[in-house]
């Protein structure tokens, strides 16, 4: 009983730790090893409460069964995330493109014909699900705070970082800037958000681009990323490397998964660089034509 009689170095009470292990022992966890002859036992684990490495969080389940009912919404949220890691569900919840902007495919298994069609490797979560889960997380955070619990599920710096990641997402740039709106709808007030004058595009701009792209059979996301690139280099005395950056964007996979697969099949018989080089030259010619029109008008 040494742990219960003496304070730990950081001044906390070991009884809290003792009870934590005891209450999570519903699945056969050892509450405490008394001596070196005691065999190891237990199969629960502690760590990040949203961790989906294990199928079930036995420790949290036992804590709830032993009186910590307030944790039930956390377990429900965690299990929802875990469900999305099931291979059968990944295509629904995850983008078919990786963060590189390209579709990746599984390697051929030993003995498998390399010419046979292989499944693509899912990328990050679709933005619509990220929005949905963030809203649910904030609602849980608000609920716990209203109950007087000293718990913070997500910090303000994390929210600021997530917002920037969403705005500059390589596949689905969030020009709606939806995170501040989600936060305001949940909490009823705003944080001190940082607004970048160079990225002053919004929902109306995104809608206009989508409408124009339908007329010209161009992917809206590609145009958004090209505009972002142009804005990021605006005002620079030297626009070094912009051609290569444009080429890199054009080489990414744009369109539906089926369209991308068809393009990949067509590229197998051609040199990839030559195909994209022709596309780049076509865009450069269109830019030159636009410049000529602008010079005539102004």
Walk me through what this model shows.
By secondary structure, the chain is an all-alpha fold. Among the domains are: 1-68, no CATH class; 203-297, no CATH class. It is 51% helix and 1% strand. It contains 13 helices and two strands. The protein has helices at residues 2-5, 14-23, 58-65, 72-83, 90-93, 127-146, 156-167, 178-187, 203-216, 220-232, 242-250, 257-267, 272-297; strands at 104-105, 120-121. A two-stranded antiparallel sheet has the order 1-2. Helix 6 runs parallel beside helix 8 and helix 10 runs antiparallel to helix 11. The chain is elongated and about 85 Å long. The relative contact order is 0.06. The model is unreliable at 269-273 (pLDDT under 50).
Secondary structure layout plus pairing:
Elements (H helix, E strand, L loop, with lengths): L1 H4 L8 H10 L34 H8 L6 H12 L6 H4 L10 E2 L14 E2 L5 H20 L9 H12 L10 H10 L15 H14 L3 H13 L9 H9 L6 H11 L4 H26 L1
Antiparallel strand pairs: 1-2
